[in-house]
């Protein structure tokens, strides 16, 4: 993780997209797409929405299963073809560990030193195996101003560890928790678009 995009004079926002690509992400949802495919479509919708707002904003893609992998090095959100190629490289395999927090911490440190606002979106369809170290990283990120949104996807809320995802997520001063459970691909894509637009969406689950 040594590659960094040169920053323009006006500081972009940096969006870290952490995606669960464990074996269960190959499960079909009710719309006929796999959860992995739905996540990929959501990321692309997010970047397309951000492109209309500020094409110089940056996206970093992190995949996690038994280990973390940066599948998309920092790239402007307007480079949709490059991002599409990167997200399509993800393959469902392995378990569910760490939520990509170590890689997220690395990039957050780098870009916040350069005056950039950093946001992290974590998506999972399972029960993440989190160590106390990773929880401390999540708390440290939030204390440094990184907004963390978490998304659980699956057939039912019990398919994910909702309490853990709420604990990882940012809680606003008014009590709003940046977590949502979603059970279909169309809603997931809309949610990514809303996150890109900076909208707060109440959790219906």
Automatic annotation (TrEMBL):
Domain of life: Bacteria
Domain VWFA: 82-195
Coiled-coil intervals: none
Protein name according to UniProt: von Willebrand factor type A domain protein
Lineage: Bacteria, Pseudomonadati, Planctomycetota, Phycisphaerae, Sedimentisphaerales
């Amino acid at each position: 993780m040594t590659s960094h995009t040169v920053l323009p004079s006006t500081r972009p926002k940096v969006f870290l997209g952490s995606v669960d690509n464990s074996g269960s992400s190959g499960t079909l949802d009710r719309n006929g797409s796999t959860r992995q495919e739905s996540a990929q479509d959501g990321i692309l919708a997010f970047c397309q929405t951000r492109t209309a707002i500020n094409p110089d904003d940056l996206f970093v893609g992190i995949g996690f299963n038994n280990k973390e992998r940066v599948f998309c090095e920092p790239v402007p959100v307007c480079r949709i073809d490059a991002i599409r190629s990167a997200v399509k490289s993800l393959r469902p395999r392995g378990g569910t560990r760490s939520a990509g927090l170590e890689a997220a911490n690395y990039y957050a440190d780098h870009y916040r030193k350069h005056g950039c606002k950093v946001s992290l979106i974590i998506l999972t369809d399972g029960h993440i195996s989190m160590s106390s170290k990773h929880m401390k990283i999540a708390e440290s990120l939030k204390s440094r101003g990184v907004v963390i949104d978490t998304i659980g996807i699956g057939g039912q809320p019990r398919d994910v560890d909702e309490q853990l995802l709420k604990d990882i997520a940012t809680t606003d001063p008014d009590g709003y928790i940046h977590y949502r459970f979603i059970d279909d691909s169309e809603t997931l894509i809309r949610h990514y678009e809303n996150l890109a637009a900076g909208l707060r969406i109440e959790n219906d689950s």
